[in-house]
Amino acid sequence: MAQDHDHDHGSGHGPAHQQGSAQDHGHHHGPAQNHGHDHTHMDFSQMLPLLVQEAELFTPAYAEAAEWLREQQPEPGLIVDAGSGPGVISCLLAERFPGARVVAVDAAEPLLAEARARAERLGVADRFSTVEAELSEGVGDLEYPADLLWASRSLHHVGDQRAALAGFVRSLAPGGTLALLEGGLPTRFLPRDTGIGRPGLEARIDAVHDEWFTRMRAELPGSVTETEDWPALLTAVGLRHTATRTFLLDLPAPLSDVARDFVVTVLTRRRDGLAEGLDAEDLATLDRLLDPDDKASVHHRSDVFVLTAMTVYVGVKPE
User: Fold this and answer.
1) CA–CA dist 69, 31 (Å, integer)
2) Average pLDDT in the 89-102 region?
3) What angle do CA 43, 49, 53 make, to 5 degrees?
């Protein structure tokens, strides 16, 4: 379940704020939206450590989504993870659907290599394979049509999202299920008033990030503006929209060291990538929050948490 929460490949691409999570993933490319960037080109291969870090941390929510998908498609023969990134979600799907073959599809071979290595470590390599393909061109060559196609925060990295969805549908077997993770809510790490700087820092960061995301979409090859009505888009490409559900990731304070490291990584990316859009006071606040020698920083604070919501839309291909 790939993965941009800042921009997810989560496993998609993409991290913790959908419009741009580390799974900006799924290319998870997924979850989570939220890392900023000083330009709109994203090299997901360079983001490998962050994509793995986020997808593993967000696994409880992805696992809940996988269990829900079992109700929609109990025994798929072939599962495709479109925009798989390093394969964290692909391997999770292989574990949760032990009778299925899983194909991880991504445009970045280094991420697919990581996915194959992960499948080997987890003992699912005999049912696991990869395809290198740009999602704008569909999911590449499959042995047979997919029964379940999962796309986590990868679609918004394709210029013509409707055309990409149509390509996904062509790869589905009759009665097959498309599960699209897009949208949700921005990830939050801090209380509104942190005691330093002006209250509401994360809301202002989100506003700057949304502007960046709009530019990123506009600059994609073949970019087409679409209203982000995902059920309507599923219907437009010939699917029957059958369900929508939002999954919560709630890691309350005090955080584990692993979760705290993730918060530091994400805030550092936001500080570096969105600097031009933030004012001097907010940049100074971020500098304090990221200074390991400052007791008010996220390295030491007892009130840091991770809270986000990820929405999955399900469509079924007519038989």
Assistant:
1) 18
2) 97
3) 125
pTM of the model: 0.88
| CA–CA distance, 195 with 173 (Å, rounded to integer) | 55
Structure tokens given for 29: 């490319």
Confidence bin at 47 (pLDDT 50/70/90): confident
CA distance 26 to 29: 5
Please determine, for residue 167, whether its predicted confidence score (pLDDT) is greater than 80: yes
C-alpha to C-alpha distance for 11 and 5, rounded to whole angstroms: 11
SS3 147: strand
Q: Which helix (H) or strand (E) holds 117?
A: helix 109-122
The dihedrals phi and psi of 93, each to the nearest 5 degrees, come to: -65, -40
For 95-122, what is the mean pLDDT?
96
List the domains of the chain with CATH numbers: 48-316 (3.40.50.150)
Structure tokens at 95: 């574990």
d(CA 314, CA 319): 16
Residue 4 has pLDDT above 80, yes or no: no
Helix (H, G, I), strand (E, B) or coil at 68: helix
Distance CA 186, CA 204 (A): 12
Are β-strands 172-181 and 146-152 bridged in parallel, bridged antiparallel, or unpaired? parallel
pLDDT of 8 higher than 90: no
Structure tokens belonging to residue 312? 């999955």
Is residue 46 within 8 Å of 59, Cβ to Cβ?
Answer: no
Q: Which residues pair with 244 in a beta bridge?
A: 313
Return the number of other C-beta atoms located less than 10 Å from residue 144's C-beta.
10
Amino acid found at 243: A
Match 């992960």 to its residue by tokens: 118
